[in-house]
Amino acid sequence: MNSPLRVALIGAGIMGRQHYQHLSQLPQARLCAVADPGLQAEAFAAQCGAANYADHRKMLEHARPDAVIVANPNNLHVACALDCVEAGIPVLVEKPVGVHLDEVRSLVEASRKRNVPVLVGHHRRHNPLITKAREVIEQGKLGRLVNVTALWQLQKPDSYFETPWRREPGAGFLLTNLIHDLDLLRFLCGEVVQVQAFTRNDVRGFANEDSAAVLLQFANGALGSLTGSDAVAAPWSWELDSGESPVYPRQEGQPCYLLAGTEGAMSIPQLKRWHYAEAGSGWHTPLLQSRESIPAGQALTLQLQHFIRVAQGREAPLIDAADGGRTLALVDAIREAAETGRACAPALIA
Ligand SMILES: NC(=O)c1ccc[n+]([C@@H]2O[C@H](COP(=O)([O-])OP(=O)(O)OC[C@H]3O[C@@H](n4cnc5c(N)ncnc54)[C@H](O)[C@@H]3O)[C@@H](O)[C@H]2O)c1
């Protein structure tokens, strides 16, 4: 048997430690080093039996890991990922892949030039129910996709906003949370070519948006809407509905995405499907309902297993830097549309 892949972690905060929890269950990899200047990192590294470094460049030079997970603050993602790529080390970068599209373009270029893979941590794409939903769409069971409805309506506790940066410009839920939903909509329904949007911030009264309404036009002609707020006592969001993370008490049975096509419709995460026995028979005929079976599997574990195969050169990243950049470009277009009142197209990331 091959020796376990030596994986290093840059940024050992909440998400970095979650990655470690999942990694420690996998026999084919082990944590060899941690790079984090924070005071808590040394004890964490010792607990994991990994070497500890305050500076990630020193870690790359001395520990020479086979693969790296970057889970530090967003504005450091691209610089750290570039250092890994320059050192020839495959990297899993947490979402968002970066903060500015220009820096993301530099990462795309470096990854291609050096032929070093970058996987972006939009882990929901690895959730088996999303894999299944995509399969249903690709099999044509919904026919031509016409309407897409996405909901992200929940309440973050007031204590969440006691951390100052969460109240400051740039840290709103569009970039922090809706980026996941937008990534899934791209993954399931295809590229978005144009958006219109309204945002407001007067429920909580902070600089960041606390509610948003977005209209989406997909390249395949489907039209979508996404409404969101982090200030409403409501049950409709991936977090509360999917059961993916035990930290959110589940609202079983509530959908967060509704996809409707000419031959059928589907709710996510339930994967309930509606269709007519005879296509086109319409509203006087009973609409039949069925449910796709959902295979078991934990998205973060599946993402890590995929990353290990990517680092071993056995698979291409499911979401590379350019793909992650396209999701970021969509968030930017929504922000621009909300600020200007104009319809906006996401910037192209080749
Ligand atoms: N995929 C998901 O669902 C998900 C969920 C939460 C967070 N995230 C992402 O994970 C990243 C980290 O978020 P978090 O909630 O863990 O934040 P956090 O604040 O808990 O952790 C960040 C860590 O990075 C460390 N750090 C700061 N500067 C550093 C540097 N120069 N080099 C190395 N480490 C440094 C900090 O000391 C801290 O330990 C963010 O990009 C966030 O968007 C993703």
UniProtKB/TrEMBL annotation:
Domain Gfo/Idh/MocA-like oxidoreductase N-terminal residues, every copy: 5-122
Ranges for domain GFO/IDH/MocA-like oxidoreductase: 131-264
Top-level taxon: Bacteria
Record's protein name: Gfo/Idh/MocA family oxidoreductase
Source species of the chain: Pseudomonas promysalinigenes
